[in-house]
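Suppose a colleague, Dr. K., hands you the sequence of a protein chain of 927 amino acids and asks what its three-dimensional shape might be. Before reaching for any lab equipment, you can write down a predicted structure in C-alpha cell form. Begin with the sequence itself:
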Amino acid sequence: MPDIHTPAAIHAKPPGRAAIAMRIAARVDAHDGSVDSLRTPVLAELKSCLEEGRAALRTQFEAQHRGETTVRALSRLMDSLIQALADFTMQTVYPTAEPTSAERFAVAATGGYGRGELAPLSDVDLLFLLPYKRTPRVEQMVEYMLYMLWDLGLKVGHAVRSVDECLRQSTDMTIRTGLLETRFLWGEEKLFDELRARFQKEIVASSAPAFIEAKLNERNERHRKLGDSRYVLEPNLKEGKGGLRDLQTLFWIAKYVYQVDEVEELVARGVLLEEEAQRFAKAQNFLWTARCQLHYLTGRAEDRLTFDVQPEIARCLGYTNHAGTSDVERFMKHYFLTAKDVGDLTRIFCANLEQESRRPPRFTRLFRAFTRGEVDGFALDAGRLNVRSDRHFRDHPLDLIRLFRVAQVHDLDIHPNALRAITRALSVIGPKLREDREANRLFLEILTSRKDPELTLRRMNEAGVLGRFVPDFGRTVGMMQFDMYHHFTVDEHTLYAVGIMHRIEAGQLNDETPLSAEVIHEIASRRALYVAVLCHDIAKGRGGDHSILGAKVARKLCPRLGMTEEETETVAWLVRWHLLMSHVAFKRDLDDDQTIRQFVEIVQSPERLKLLLCLTVADIRAVGPGRWNGWKATLLRQLYSRAVEIMSGSIGDEGRERRVAAAQSTLREELADWPAADVEAHLALGYPNYWLSSDTATLGRQARLIREAERAKAPLTLDTRIDRGRAVTEVTVYTADHPGLFSRLAGALALAGADIVDARIFTMTNGMALDVFTVQASTGGMFDSPDKLARLSVIVDKALAGEVRLAEELAKRRAALSSRHRAFKVAPRVLVDNKVSSGHSVVEVNGRDRSGLLYDLTRALTGLNLQIASAKISTYGEAAVDVFYVKDVFGLKITHEAKLKQVREALLAALADPDPEPRKAGRKRAA
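The predicted structure, expressed as C-alpha cells, is then:
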C-alpha cells in the first residue's frame, strides 16, 4: 500500500494529559462562578481537545495510511482525556482532604480500548473498579465522569464493579474476555493490581481449555452468521471470517494460555515462527488501515466494506487501475489475500494449542484406532499427516503435491507442522516441479477424484500450493469482480464450481439439476469436464475476453497435465464457449429455428452439448446464493432438447410446418369438449409462430381464456398462473392491440413489484393482442402472494385505462434506488443483429438496471413504430441485459442504416440515468 508523507501530517500531534490538564486549569482559574456552573466551560475545553486531537491524527493517517499507528494514538488521546477528566472530577468537583479506603477506586480500559486500540468512531469501554462497596462520593464521581463523556459525543460502555464482583461474573465468557484485556488508566493502582493477580490465580490458571473451546465456538458461530466464507464481496472488516476479530481471538487465547501481551512474545515461546508473527503484524495493520479509512469516510462506526464505499476507500488508500484490473478490484484483492493470511495464522495457532493440550483433533474422524506410524511415507501424528523434518519438502518437492493426494485418498487432515513446512518451501514450486510428469499426474487425480476434489483443492489453495503449481490460477486468487452479480472471488467461485460438479455427479443435486445429473453419467470426457471447470474463469482480469484468453491457457496447461490431444481440444473448446449456452438460453427466442441451428453449428456434437450443459449449470450455481432457479433450469432444458432434436435429424427443413400441424392436432384433442366449428375458429386466430410458443396445456388454457373473453366481450382479460416448478408466475393479458400496449403493460408490472424475465407478444388475426409475461418478485423469489396478484390486476386495468401516470410513478420508485446500485457503472450498449433470427431483428440492450427500465426501453421502441414480437429479460446483479425481437411497421427486419441509427440513439437515451429533478422538462418532452 503506498504511503504519502507530508511534513504537516508528520508533525501534527494531539494534546497529551498534561496539556489537557493545563487547559482545564486555565478554565477553572478564569471562572468565578459555582462548581456546578464550571461544567459547561470545562466540557467545551474537553470537546476542543478531543476535536483537535482527532483532527491531528486524521491528518497524520491521511498522510501515512498506517492504521495500527492511528488506533494506538487514538487510544492514547482517549487515555489523556479520561485521566484529565478524572483528575478534575476528584480535585475540583468532589475534592476531599484524605479519601477513605472505600473512596479510592480505579478506572480501567477494557475491550479493544484495553488493548490500546481504538478506531476513530468505536465505543470506549471502561471499568470503574471499586474496593468492596459503593459510597455516595464514588457514585457521584463515576456519574459525573460518565455524563461528561456522553456529552462529548462518545459511546461509552461501562461497568461499575468491585474486585469480587468482577471475579464472580467472569463465568460469562464475554466479561472474562473483557477482564483479560483490562488496562490501568487512573486511580488506585493497587486495586487494579489485586484484580489482575486474583483473576490470573483464581480464574485463568485452571480454565485455559474451557476458554479456548468457548472462543473457538464463538468464532465458528460468528463465521456462520456472516456466511462462513472469507471471500464474500461485501466483507465485515471486524467480525467477518479473516477479519480483525479472528486476529483478536488469537491474541485472547495467546494471552490466556501463555500470559503474553504482544504477539512477538509467541515467537520466543515457539508458538509462532518469526515470519508468522510478521504476517500477523502486516495483516493487522492492513485491516486497521482499511477500518480507519472506512470510519473516516462514512462518519460512523461502520465495519462492512459495502460496494458503495469500496471504490472511494481504494482511491483514498492510493490504489490505481493497472493491467486490466480496476483500483477497487486491486484493493479488494489485497483484502482477500490478507483474510487468507489471517485464516492461515489462526488455523496454525489453534492447531498447536490443540496438540499441546493433548486433546483429540477437532476434525478427527475414525483414526483414533489407526495404529500405523505412517501413511504412504508421511508420518501420522494424532490422526493427521505430518513430515518428520522442516526440510522435507525442500528435499522432496514432489511431496508438496503428493501430500494432498494422500490426504484425499485416506480422508485425513494435514498437521499444522506440515502446513508450516509447506509455507517455508513454496519457493521450490518452480518450472521443474510444474513440468514433472508425476506431479502433474497426481494433481490431475486430485482434480478428477470422486472423493470431493473441492476440499483438497481448497486446502492446496489455502496453503499457497495451487496458485504456484498452476500460476494462471494463482493470478485469480483473491480477485474480485466489482459487480452485484458475482458473490465470491474468482478463485472461490472456481473451487465452488468444482464442488458443485462433484455433487451433481454424486447424485446430491438430482432434485435441483435433474437433467445435468442424468447426462453427466453419459459423457466420455469426464477428465476434460473437471479441467474445464478449473480453467473456465482462469483468464479473468487480463483486459480481454476471458473465454478466448482462457482457451489459450487451457491449450498450454492440458498437455502439461498429461491430457491427450483430444482432451485438450475439448477443454479449450469448453472454456472458449462456457458462456454460450446461458447466453442463448437466457437471451434468445428458443422457438426460432435459426437460433437453435446457429447454436448447434458451434456445439457440433451431443458429447459437447452434454459437457456444456454440466459446465453451465455448475458455473451458474457457483456464482452465489439465489443465482440458480427453476426458470433458468427450464430454459436450459428447453435449449438442450431443441439442440438434440436438430442433432438427431428429427427436425428437417420442413420441420416447422410439421410442428405447427402437430401442435394444432394435439390442441384439437385438448379441446375435445368444444364444438368442431369453435375449435376451427380458434385455430384460425393464431399465426404459425403462436402454435410453437407453448406446450399443449398452455395453449389449451389460452384458448379457453380467449373464448370466455370473446363471449363476454370483455375489453380486458387478465389471468395469472403460478408455476412453482419453474419458480415463476405467468401473467396472460388479452385485450385490443394498439401501439404502446407492451410498454404500458411493462410499466404496470414494474409498478406492481413484478420483474419480467420473459415476454411473448402475439397479435391474433382478429386484431386482439395476447401478451404472455413470465414474472418473478422484484425482491427475488416467487411473485405469488394473493395481495400482490390482486394489486397487479388493479394496476394493469388502471394503466390501460390511462388512470395511472406510469412515468411519474416509476420515477418515484427510482428515487429509492439504493446507494449500493449507484456505486456501479454499467456502460450502456445497444446491439442490433439481423442474422440470429430468420424473421426478426434482434436488439440487445445493456445498461444499469433500475425500476421501470423495461417500460422506458419499450416506450422508445414503440415511439419508433417498431413491433415487438418477444422479449428476453435478464438481470446480472446491477446490469440489465434485455433482448427484443422486433419488426418495422411493414413487418420486415430493420436494415436501413438511418433507421438502425435511430434505434440505437433512442435506446441509449432511454438507458441514460434519469435526471432526478427535471419533472417539468420531462413532461414537456413527453408532450
